[in-house]
Amino acid sequence: MNTSGFKTLEPEQRLLMGPGPVNVYPAVLRAMSLPMLGQFDPQFTDYMNEIMSLYRQIYRTRNKWTFLVNGTARAGIEACLSSMISPGDRVLVPIFGRFGHLLTEISRRCQAEVINIETEWGTVFEAGQIADAVSKHQPRFVALVHGDTSTTMAQPLDEIGPLCREAGTVVYVDTTATLGGMPFEVDKWCLDAVSSGLQKCLSGPPGCSPVTINDRVAEIVNSRKHVEAGIRPDGVIDADGPIVQSNYFDLAMLMDYWSPMRLNHHTEATSMLYAAHTCAQVVLNEGLEAGFARHRITSQAIRKGLTAMGLELFGHESHRMDNVTGVFIPKILGDGEQVRSQLLGDFGIEIGTSFGPLKGKIWRIGTMGYVCRKTNILRCLSALEAVLRRNGFEVPPGEGVDAAYKVFEQ
Ligand SMILES: Cc1ncc(COP(=O)(O)O)c(C=O)c1O
Q1: Which of 38, 110, 288, 383 would be a feasible disulfide site paired with 85, CB 3.0-4.6 Å?
Q2: For residue 20, which atom of ligand 1 is closest to its CA?
């Protein structure tokens, strides 16, 4: 106890095997305790430039405009959508889980005319369905999610980007849950604007969103550029397009801050920038392909383990994300909350439940970033076996762990 009347913070050591946030790389935690720098210190602006280069590599893009939005992943989504969408623009949002609804909601707040197509949670869209909707509705934008953690499904994008480009439609993608964990190709897949977060496969803390936009989007954004009067340099005049409703999320002003102009906008979140820099370095040092393979093998191991324990996996097999697995909660266990709470309280392991139609129906077990390794899979499966048995669900002893071992030994 200290004079504030509260104990000094001492969070438990948890193993975070939910859908994110996940445990942070030790190098990232260390980076966050490095000294502050002023936001125009040449060392700091060099770090900003390095961030742009690091995230170009992670996103696999040549986009000049690749930088950070301060705020959680939703901040990056909101910055892209609110800077791109003008009132009255038509936006097609295909929904296959909770985060498609989020894109819809944000687009509506931008006063878009939103068209939704929906597919059952646990499935994704065929490229032809998107093509039909694009040709029928002729939207200015398509906004969709790559991996929707709420359903644990990943939407293939390799055909959707090109077909939208062909149709003259601009594509925005939310890759919060997959970047660094599954192959993601901004340029090859013709994606125009993309945003992400640190707290999943990049294994950083929540609070910063790497975004990338290509020249098409930069042009849209700049056609709406209004610079705050108090910082506007001589000779700069406002563009004709409608002003972006949000000051904080106005990408055109952020671009001036991230360009050699260094026109002040907000104060860059220094420790988050150190974190984002280090996350990218850790991921690139491992190698993107090696990281994808690690996520793929580890998720195979946990799935084999869960199935061997007599549990049933959720969702369409060929579209499962490589970094989070949905598993049905056996009926005998009700909404599954007692199991989750015993895993947390007795073993220090967190797994997730889900939302909407899947709340209380599935657990979601994340294998993301730093967490995605053999020791954690074996720990999680053995703890789950013990807890399931205590709650009356019969599990063949040791078979979950053995099945996972076999995958790692192949
Ligand atoms: C696919 C997806 N998009 C967006 C978000 C929102 O991220 P945040 O909570 O960091 O704003 C999440 C968070 O779980 C997510 O999984």
Answers
A1: 110
A2: 14
